[in-house]
Here is the input.
Amino acid sequence: MARSPNESDRARARLHLLDWLACVAGARQSPVAAVARMAEPDILTRAALLGNVLEMDDVHRTALLHPGPVIWPSALSAARQEKCDMDAMLDGAVRGYEAMIAVGATFDAHHYAHFHPTSTAGGFGGAAAAASIFGLDESATGWALGNAASVTGGLWRMRHEDVMTKAMHAARAALEGLWIARLARQGFTGPVAALEGEQGLYAAMVREPKPMVLGEDWLIHAVSFKPWAACRHAHAAIDCAMELRARGALTLPVTVETYADALKFCDRPHPATELDAKFSIQHAVAVIADGRNATPEDFTPEAIAALADKRALVTVRETAEFTDRYPEHFGARVLCAPLPGQGGAGGGSTAPTLHPAANPPLTPPLQGGEQVTLIDTRGDPERPASPQMLRAKLDSLVRWGGLKPVEADRAEEIALNGTSIGPLLALLEDWLE
Here is the structure.
């Protein structure tokens, strides 16, 4: 932890803070928020339960996890305790992102098949963020990280039932990491070989650990933003469909080709609940075909019922070309059926591949219809989120959460320009009381 974030790193962290606030705002009228309001008197504990409710939280592709909903509640709670300034909190957050992503990126496919990495790696991030803000030395920080490893967990079973458990996974990692750092501050020791040591985390949960990679840049710069209210595994298909729609070329039926994990999590042709719809590529593409923009209201029971006919015209299949690039790239191709009167060799038009430098051509086009292929999607580092995209997301979620539009201006000013955490705490008090 000798390395210190600079102003560029803090500026990046501020964008992720704003993104987390947008997610919290959008979830403030959710069933999870209603339970949190009754069960938890502390505002930051409530906020910790809301960051991933809408499935719009930031994501690191290689580590396959969502840092924001873990890191910000831990960092802000530690900063409140320390009464530190915004820069100290931002530095803690950058270090929290680093620890969570670095550990999560060492997990293998066996781990991801059973465990939720936001939960299993999250405690490392929560502990590292708080340890930085508390000013822990190397030994105490190692104890905190070791104890985070010793209690980690989080099973994917919750994906198979319409439950609130995923929100708890992120909150637990955040608050447990904070608590563990508090203990370490007072001399509470922990196993520093808890990852690779005998009977450690790797032995229990990972068959083939990957090397831990730390570069010159902080890993927060490699985190993606999510513009749409669906699982990230559906975003490449959404992006392809949006590009086709913009050209007036999105005609049903369509076939979506993508990577294996996207189908494992998001092949749901008949979603029954809002959560199902957020994890349905079929529904996500039907949303775009219907002229919608994949905002939270497009995944409600009403939208599920309204889009049943269009959803039935979306077929999904795994293609090795995308699976081979995953998880470094979350790619997809959307192929349209020929329009009436088209068909046969040369009977249709072929859409040029977007961003050819980053997205080289894959397979030959479908004869007769249009297609779009994307290896990376909007919000990825290769196709960075624009300020306009982040502001549009903020405006949408502030509105969805039942807040006045001026609250978006307030959140943006505090997150991007604030020097004190006081206004940030007051903002959350106003939103979540």
